[in-house]
Amino acid sequence: MYVLRCFRFFNFNYITLINEQHRVLESRLAPVSREITDNRARTREELESVYRKIVSYVLLRSGLGSPTDIKVIREATAALQSVFPQTELAAFLSLSKKEKERQLKELTMIVTGIRLFNKDCGKGGEGIDELPAILSEAIPAATHHIDIELHASQELAYQYTALIEMMHHSQNAELELKLTMLKEVLYNVRQHEAFLCVILSDVITCAQEVDMMDKQFAAQMEELKNIVRAKTAVPTSLVYPIFIELSNLWTSFQDEILVLSFLNNLTISLQQFLGSHTLIFPEDIMESLLEDIIVKTDEDRLKESADSKVNPADFSKEEWLFPEFTINFSQLLIQYHGFCPYSFAVKDGLLLPGNPSLGVLKHKEKYYAFNSVEAAYTFAKNPDKYIKMIGDKAKETSIDINILILK
């Protein structure tokens, strides 16, 4: 099914995505940089041409406005002249190529910081997008969209699980065929749910990063205002580091925009997945199959076992962990994405959510949760036996154990 082909994205490191974007930017800037660093300008006209190229370089690297917008160019030129007047250009061109490249990057950050400061003071900011505001709107919109998709995926999973439980003991050949198909789509929809949970978690992480950067940006801006307030001249040693920090934070905002866009596109690419399920089990067929069947949510199943708990005294070797006695209990990496391994092993691949509050079994440095005390006790008598059964069962089906342990 479609969703299985998306697994490669979830081994993805977003630092790789950001680094690749930065590499692309460097490759695009390389010709402009060479035109500056290899230049042998001597005449006034030639020097003015190089200076204009530096302004273009600064705008291209910073991403703050179009390098063809005259208002943006004027603002960037004024900011550059305040820290790097054209009279210093000849000395700059006499430097080594490596030093010129370093100074170009530093000038970009300083000019970026100046323009961001001026924008905050209401004295500039032409062509500069309100990235923090854009992110503050885009992140809730992204989480809302994912929540809708996740809810739809979970509803299908609950329905498929209810049908599988009903058909499990049937000897009817037609129902047996449907049972096989239902298990396949259940595995698939649970994988889809796992993907969406990963995306949602990453969007939440993005929100946390943006919130932290917002505070840092505001603090740096306030510090800068305090330094320059009512002063006609300020030592560059005080303000340049802050300009550079503002620039770095703005680059981080740009990076978060990139990551969020990637996550949104990934979510959209998964949308067609749910549509494929209606082709396998159309709505009218699902309605007829579900008639008189109680569909339980994962929460319903957890409530059913809420008052039960494993008694660790019943076990001499196995270690059990409980939320009230275990630090960072919620951070435990439960195997099989939290599904009950016993149910999967002995109920022909049925996926039922485990309830960690019953007690989490620690076996060979891995953790397992169960949907009932009975399942926990039976599994704990011979964990390796059931783990092998799970591996064998996974080979017979479309389910990918790696996907089921995504967190």
TrEMBL record:
Superkingdom of the source species: Eukaryota
Subcellular location: Cytoplasm, Cytoskeleton, Cilium axoneme
Entry keyword annotation includes Transport: no
An annotated GO BP: sperm axoneme assembly
An example Gene Ontology CC term for this record: ciliary basal body
Record has Cytoplasm as a keyword: yes
InterPro entries found in the cross-reference section: FAP206 (IPR021897)
Entry keywords, A to Z: Cell projection, Cilium, Cilium biogenesis/degradation, Cytoplasm, Cytoskeleton
Major localization listed first in the record, in broad terms: cytoplasm
Pfam family, one: FAP206
Role, per record: Essential for sperm motility and is involved in the regulation of the beating frequency of motile cilia on the epithelial cells of the respiratory tract. Required for the establishment of radial spokes in sperm flagella.
Family per similarity comment: Belongs to the CFAP206 family.
Protein name as annotated: Cilia- and flagella-associated protein 206
The species this protein was found in: Varanus komodoensis
